[in-house]
Design brief:
CATH topology of the largest domain: TIM Barrel
CATH superfamily of the largest domain: EAL domain
Largest sheet: 8 strands, mixed, barrel
Shape: elongated
Structural class: alpha/beta
Number of helices: 25
Organism: Sphingomonas colocasiae
CATH architecture of the largest domain: Alpha-Beta Barrel
Number of strands: 26
Number of domains: 4
Protein name: Bifunctional diguanylate cyclase/phosphodiesterase
Helix content: 40-55%
Pfam family, one: EAL
Radius of gyration: 30 Å
């Protein structure tokens, strides 16, 4: 077990030892997540008594690693802090114990938590506990009359050529002055009546910072175990499992890959991202989302393992992301066929409770290079391929080679950089003009985001939103862009005071029940008139629940905004959306605008879309117009507005004012 207690560490650790547990105990919350993972514990205990705020923060930090490793998280609260249980539960605690309590109650609480962990792991923890307990690790044992016996790993770590058998002083002399003082204090605590375990921090002769845990042996000796406080390059972790799906977790996946790459075994790695998961959780709730994730995991595992004993690894490495590793004997063609099979399987509707929900996925593939490839390089290429699959238009599965990955390999770091980017105002808002076909005047603009990355330069919206989807940061990013765009427009000079502003709303946004109220309140707070604002929702990203989407968009229209369907013609339910949703504008996707210069059949399609929109009372905006001939053909078919590089790309407010003057 791993224990964090700000005031009662030794007493609780002693109680746990009496109940048969080996406790890795800490008094400070720094590095608590890493220390829990390195400990290999299946139960984490956070004692919040005396420091409720720090205890809540530690619970929140431990929640994800505990869940990912099929563990249990027990919080201890004071009798007067029962009101904090709601917050602790929301932070991720699975069990609680309120003081005052005795050793027997604490022991029982640990037993309940242990059984919870065993059930989550499908019995894996129970089957492997004996192995874990038999591994001495960085440990030693002292028995009166027999001296000190060091475990082989510890002896190798501190550079002793033989096992010592001449008393505790043999270890004491290996400590520096600070370490010796800390050891004397710890031994003094250990001699106190009723204390069976304590700990102190020091450095090994190598300079490595460690925590030294001391335990009284029931036979009368002392047992010591050493916990590294600095993350080892390759921590020894066994059989790590994702709590929700039962598959390997990310660390186990990397270890599987590393073992085979070091042995020179050819490996193909797939990274698979399940689509629209943020939206599903927001629309149907986490219980439904968890059920769908488990079902998707079983499908992925079934196809990956296949028949005939294929050697494969399947792991859940992030929220909606899976890794599939294939060993030698799987040529590139067969790996690609397997990826296509998995992709097709995930497009079929899944059932969770009373909901039937269609999923989808994108898959990036990479094969280990012939010379000296490592896990980092292979993962980077597969991540780059996945990013390409998410943002490209060439299909669900993308395979990328080492040279080709250079252009996009840095994409994996963008997920980490994105949170900082919002705080440091690296996300800029630009405005692309929308011009009336009949008057030639700029009547409105669409707000578009650009990321001014301090090292990588300007990054477009597709890269920005792909990073947000991968890092589950789509909703905060969307809100940031909407809020910033409206605030900038509210500060426009007088000559821009008649322009309409269009802002994009994602499918994840409209899946949030109170989005309309919060959105309208944000507009009012900025001072921008509701009547000049248009909400654009991408047709290809709409959720399946058209009733909920229609109600939300109707609320926005009732509040004074207008509604446009963006990128029309890119999805598969266009007619259903037009019939069900309350709209004011239809925006033709740039691909359709380009096609109008193609064959007569292409022009018939564009003409049909425009006529259908006009018959429904909708104004039509064509995107991506780049040539005068495109504009002439669109005008002939009855298009009302256009935007594109024929007029201008995205510009800032100052340049926008110049363009408005130029276009009269």
């Amino acid at each position: 077990m791993f224990l964090l207690s700000f005031r009662h560490r030794d007493a609780l650790a002693t109680s746990a030892e009496k109940a048969g547990w080996r406790a890795i105990a800490a008094r400070r919350p720094e590095g608590v997540e890493r220390r829990f993972i390195a400990s290999g514990a299946v139960v984490a205990v956070v004692d919040t008594r005396g420091s409720p705020a720090e205890g809540l923060a530690a619970t929140r930090a431990l929640a994800d690693p505990v869940e990912a490793n099929a563990g249990a998280l027990l919080v201890i609260v004071g009798r007067n802090d029962i009101g904090a249980l709601d917050a602790l539960f929301a932070a991720g605690a699975t069990h609680y114990l309120a003081s005052p309590f005795g050793e027997a109650e604490f022991a029982q609480a640990l037993r309940f938590a242990e059984r919870h962990s065993d059930r989550l792991s499908g019995g894996w923890h129970a089957r492997n506990r004996a192995l874990a307990e038999s591994d001495g690790g960085l440990g030693w044992r002292y028995a009166p009359g027999m001296g000190v016996t060091l475990g082989e790993p510890l002896r190798a770590r501190i550079g002793l050529p033989t096992s010592r058998a001449d008393g505790l002083m043999s270890l004491y002399h290996l400590l520096d002055m600070e370490g010796r003082a800390a050891a004397r204090t710890a031994l003094s605590r250990l001699r106190q009546a009723g204390t069976r375990t304590t700990a102190f921090a020091h450095r090994l002769p190598s300079g490595e910072h460690v925590a030294h845990h001391l335990h009284i042996d029931p036979a009368g000796g002392v047992i010591g175990s050493i916990e590294p406080l600095e993350m080892a390059e390759e921590p020894e972790t066994r059989g790590r499992r994702d709590a929700l799906t039962g598959l390997r977790d990310g660390i186990a996946a990397r270890r599987w890959l590393e073992t085979r790459l070091k042995a020179g075994t050819p490996v193909t790695l797939m990274l698979l991202s399940v689509s629209r998961f943020d939206m599903i959780n927001a629309a149907f709730g986490r219980e439904t989302g968890d059920g769908l994730m488990r079902s998707a995991a079983r499908q992925i595992e079934r196809f990956a393992m296949g028949a005939g004993g294929r050697t494969a690894m399947v792991a859940r490495v992030a929220g909606a992301e899976f890794a599939i590793g294939l060993e030698e004997g799987e040529p590139a063609e067969r790996a690609r066929l397997l990826a296509d099979e998995i992709a097709r399987a995930l497009t079929r509707p899944f059932v969770s409770g009373e909901h039937m929900v269609p999923l989808g996925c994108r898959i990036g593939m990479a094969t280990a290079q012939d010379t000296g490839d490592d896990v980092t390089g292979l993962m980077r290429r597969a991540s780059a391929a996945l990013a390409e699959a998410k943002t490209g238009e060439s299909g669900t599965v993308r395979t990328i080679g080492g040279a080709e990955a250079v252009a996009v390999a840095l994409g994996s770091r963008l997920e980490v950089d994105l949170r900082r980017a919002l705080d440091q105002r690296e996300i800029e808002i630009m405005f692309q003009p929308q011009i009336s076909v009949t008057t030639g005047r700029i009547d409105g603009v669409e707000a578009l985001a650009r990321w001014r990355h301090p090292e990588l330069g300007e990054l477009g919206a597709s890269t920005l939103f792909a990073a947000a989807e991968r890092s589950d940061y789509l909703l905060p990013l969307s809100e940031h862009i909407q809020r910033r765009a409206v605030a900038l427009a509210a500060a426009w000079p007088e000559r821009l005071s008649t322009l309409r502003l269009s802002v994009n709303v994602t499918a994840a946004d409209i899946a949030v029940a109170d989005f309309a109220d919060r959105f309208l309140a944000m507009i009012d707070e900025s001072g921008f008139p509701r009547g000049r604002l248009t909400v654009e929702i991408t047709e290809s990203g709409l959720i399946e629940d058209l009733g909920q989407a229609a109600a939300l968009l109707a609320a926005l229209r009732a509040g004074g905004c207008r509604v446009a369907i963006d990128d029309f013609g890119t999805g598969y339910s266009s007619l259903a959306y037009l019939k069900a949703l309350p709209l004011d504008y239809l925006k033709i996707d740039k691909k359709l605008a380009e096609d109008i210069e193609g064959s007569s059949r292409d022009r018939v399609v564009v003409r049909g879309v425009i006529e259908m929109a006009r018959s429904l009372g909708l104004s039509v905006v064509a995107e991506g117009v780049e040539t005068a001939s495109q504009l002439a053909l669109l005008a002939r078919e009855g298009c009302n507005y256009y935007q594109g590089f024929l007029c201008s790309g995205p510009v800032d407010s100052a340049r926008l004012a110049e363009l408005v003057d130029q276009f009269g």
